[in-house]
Amino acid sequence: MTRRSRRLGVDGTIGHPNIGGRDTTDLLAAQHAILTPVRDALRRQHATATAFNRVLLIWRLENTDAAVRFLDALRGGGLSA
What we know:
Distance between the termini: 25 Å
Largest sheet: none
């Protein structure tokens, strides 16, 4: 999943989490299921990254963590630090 496709997929639920009365539970769960392994892989890579690769991994990890927290909040899980 590219950064752009992740952004488009998550942003698509911002404006209409329950458009037309439709339940988005499955959509949010699917997005969460896709992002969680990505986040876990970034965390593993971060442990051994050096120099500029570390900077890029931190950026990607922070963005992915934010997306997962956002999905958790939409799913009713609240926000976590």
